[in-house]
Amino acid sequence: MSNSVSFSVVITNYNYRDYVGTAIESVLAQTRAAAQLIVMDDGSTDGSAAWLVEQYGDDPRVTLRCVSNGGQLSAFVKGLDGVTGDIVCFLDADDHWDKNYLARIGELYDNRRDIDFVFTDVNLFGNEQGVLGYADRPTDLGYTAISTWVTAYWYGAATSALSMRRSWAQRALDLPSTFQDTWRISADNCLVFGTSVLGARKYFLPTGMVHYRVHGANGWWHARHKETQFTNCYRSRTLINYYAERMRMNIFTLDLTKLEFRSKPEPSWDEARRYAKIAIRRSGAGWMKRVERSVAILRRGWRQRRKDGRRA
Question: Alpha-carbon distance 39 to 285, whole Å?
C-alpha cells in the first residue's frame, strides 16, 4: 500500500545478554517488516556487545550500536539518531512482541493520519503474570496536554508497548543533557509525558501482543514498586513542568480544558471526572464560567457512561 507507514524499531540493551536475542528475533519475525532495526548496547558488562556482534554483525536487517553506559534516556536519544521510519517503536531487550504486532498497530496508523501516539496493553510473564492495559477496548484519547500537566496522569504504557510518529519521538527526547542522569531508568516517562504535554493525539489499542518480562532487574517495574512515592512523583512533576514551560502553559491554558475534553470521542466516566476537576480550578475565567464548564463535562461523561452501560 502506498499509504502504508514505515517502522523503525529501537531496542535498548544493558546487561540482558540472556534475553536480547529473543527481543531481536521477535522484531525480525514480524509479518509487517520493520524498515529499520537499531539495537543499542548501553555499555553492558555481561558480554552483550560481543555476543550481538557475533550473532547479528553481518545481518543487514540489524544496525548495532555499542556505546558507553549513559542510562536508558541516553540510549533512547542515541538510538533515535539516524532513524528513518515514519513510526518509531521502542522495545526493551528483555521483552518481545508477537509476530503480528506491527501489522496491528500499522493498520491504525495507516488509516488514522491524525493519530500521533499509539500504546497497547502488556502481558506480564516471568516472576508475575497478568495483563496491564488502559481500557478493555480501543480508545481514542484525543489530546491529553492539560490533563497531564495538571494531574500528571499517565496516558501510556511500559517502553515496549509504546509507538509514535518519528517527529513526536524527536520532540519528546529533545531534553537538556542534565535530564539523562535523572532518567537512567524509567525513561519511558519522557516519551509518555513529553508527547502528551507537547500536544500529541493519543490512542490506546489493546493487542495482547506485547510481552513484558518481570524479573529482579526490571527498571520500570522496580521504579513502579520500590521507589518512594514522593521521589517518583517529584521526578515526574519536574519533567512535566519542563515540557509545560516549553509550551508556555499557564493558568489561562486551563480555559481550554473543555475543548481538550471534546477531542475525546467516547470519554470514560473517570476521564470526565478528571477533566471536571481541572475545569473548576482557578484560571482566566470567572467562577460561574468554570462551574458551567465543569458541569458540561460531567453531563457529557454521564451520557457516555449510560451509553456504555447499554452497550455492555
Answer: 50
Q: What is the pTM of this model?
A: 0.94
- Predicted confidence (pLDDT) per residue in 243-282, tens digit: 999 999 999 999 999 999 999 999 999 999 999 999 999 9
Q: How far apart are CA 267 and CA 262, in angstroms?
A: 9
Residue count of the chain, please give it.
312
| SS3 (DSSP) at 173 | coil
Mention every residue, 6+ apart, whose C-beta is less than 8 A from residue 47: 17
Q: CA-based angle 259:260:261, to the nearest 5?
A: 90
Residues 175-209: pLDDT tens digits?
Answer: 999 999 999 999 999 999 999 999 999 999 999 99
Going by DSSP bridges, is the β-strand pair 162-165/139-143 parallel, antiparallel, or unpaired? Answer: unpaired
DSSP 105-158: HHHHHHH-TT--EEE--EEEEES--EEE-S-SS-EEEEE-HHHHHHH-------
Q: What angle do CA 210, 60, 24 make, to 5 degrees?
A: 20
Query: Which domains are assigned to the chain?
Result: 7-246 (3.90.550.10), 251-311 (no CATH)
The three cell numbers locating residue 156: 501510556
Pick the closest to residue 224 from 169, 185, 181 (CA basis). 185
Low-confidence ranges of the chain (pLDDT < 50): 1
| Whether the Cβ atoms of residue 42 and residue 92 lie closer than 8 Å to each other | no
Q: Which of 90, 125, 103, 93 is nearest to 23 (CA)?
A: 93
CB 228 within 8 A of CB 161: no
Q: Please state, in angstroms and rounded to a whole number, the distance separating the CA atoms of residues 124 and 207.
A: 14
With pLDDT > 70 as the criterion, what percentage of the chain qualifies? 95
First to last CA, the chain: 36
